[in-house]
Design a protein that fits this description.
- By secondary structure, the chain is an alpha+beta fold.
- It is built from ten helices and six strands, in the order αβααββαααααβααββ.
- Strand 5 and strand 6 form a beta hairpin.
- Helix 5 packs across helix 9.
- The longest helix has 14 residues.
């Protein structure tokens, strides 16, 4: 690869302008050319202590470098630049120099009372029933149903501990059956009770609404007005189970 040799006059001129700069051996390259070369080449072939990059090892770098660009004499003069002037930094103020503003004296004011904020309702877990302040009154609902039967001339239901245990244990299962898996009465059928029996279930806010809903459903009304002798109601929160049976 052919390289252009810098003239001796230019070398002497550059040496005179850049104090302490050794006389260039072979050729020089502008910074934009050097920047495009691989880093190992730059490190082994150049002295990059000035804005112009000087070839330090012309023989061994000859195959690695592009054709050199001879440095015009006026550009050599431009390389002798002064370092930028330092920016003056103001000294940090001492505690004595720091001014403390006078604290204004103000009259105390009444603290405003914030407006009450309604709590944000939390989403319900799909497998847990919503929390209620208290369970529906199972005995009161049982009394409403017997009053309805009395109006029809039917005998009141009698309670039995066996079916009361079933109704009480069924009530906590109703939420998942109604709202999660949709498999209503699954827990009731899974008990395989050894007597004639059926069940009404509901998830509602009040016992009055529960009775009204059951009476407006033909299948539930048939159980309430049917020929079962025994019945019992169990409630858990707003979920209730009424079990009917004959022994």
């Amino acid at each position: 690869m052919k390289k252009r040799i810098i003239s001796a006059a230019a070398i002497l001129f550059a040496s005179a302008v850049i104090v302490g700069k050794p006389t260039p051996v072979e050729a020089s390259y502008p910074i934009d050319v050097v920047a495009s070369l691989p880093q190992p080449v730059v490190k082994s072939c150049f002295d990059n202590s000035s804005p112009w990059f000087w070839v330090e090892n012309p023989t061994q770098c000859e195959t690695l470098l592009p054709e050199a660009t001879e440095i015009p004499q006026q550009n050599l003069v431009a390389t002798a630049i002064e370092p930028p002037s330092p920016i003056p930094i103001s000294p940090s103020p001492t505690p004595e120099d720091t001014l403390t503003p006078d604290t204004p004296t103000t009259s105390p004011t009444d603290t405003p009372t914030p407006d009450p904020v309604s709590p944000t309702p939390q989403p319900l877990s799909p497998t847990s029933p919503p929390q209620s302040p208290a369970s529906l009154d199972a005995d009161a609902l049982f009394a409403l149903i017997n009053n309805h039967r009395a109006q029809l001339g039917l005998p009141p239901f009698q309670k039995d501990d066996r079916i009361c245990q079933v109704a009480t244990s069924r009530a906590p299962e109703i939420y998942n059956e109604v709202f999660v898996n949709g498999n209503m009465h699954a827990g009731f059928y899974a008990r395989h009770l050894p007597y004639s029996t059926t069940e009404n279930i509901i998830y509602i806010k009040t016992i009055e609404e529960a009775l009204n809903w059951w009476l407006n459903s033909p299948i539930h009304r048939a159980a309430i007005e049917g020929n079962y002798k025994y019945s019992c109601i169990g409630c858990s929160g707003t979920a209730c189970s009424q079990v009917f049976a004959n022994f």
